[in-house]
Amino acid sequence: MQVTRLNLFDRIWAVLIKDGLCEFRTRYSLSALFMFALVALTSISMSIGSISLPVELIAALLWVILFFCAMAGLSRVFVQEQESGTMMALRIYASGQAVIFGKLLFNVIMLLSLTILLIPLFIIFLNVDVYRWPMFIIVLILGDIGIAAASTITASMVAKTQGKNALFTVLTFPILLPQFLSSISATTQILADTSPEVGGIVFMVGYDGVMMIAISILFDYLWYD
To answer: Which candidate, 93, 127, 145, 169, has a CA 20 to 30 Å from the CA of 119?
Structure first.
């Protein structure tokens, strides 16, 4: 019988499709992300009323909401494998690189989907004016990739631990802090109708690149330990 060997990209795609089908059946992660964002936005909007907030605070609120939404749902990519007992099957049929990048792509898609749903509500609820949409979209994409990358690697670390939800947030925030601050700074400049500093955008791109390299190197030690 002929054995078909999948290349790395096919295996990454297979892991992504598997997680997508699981999410489609339960809709747990996307529901948790969106409900948290909706509750946070509604609470903030009702609290401030008609008060006009400075752009620095608006930018910080946007990324704080995105960060805690990620903390509410992105850890599921490894937690559900541990809880359902399918971790060993993944080790047998997929390499560590395929697993981590497949799950990273899934988290990126989840967070980008949330961002697409969140931004119109954020603009309406907080009465925000966005003047430079192309650059705003670039910053959102780079920031989301950074959040997803940090969340994915820390989710793999805490999947087997007790109190994994609290530990997940505690471990992710220090890793994500440089990108978090850069995203807030770039968003503040955009909302103030000025171009973000080139150095800040380059840093965000570099952070995402370094995270990809770090994930590729470190995950094999976690996966086969």
So the answer is: 169
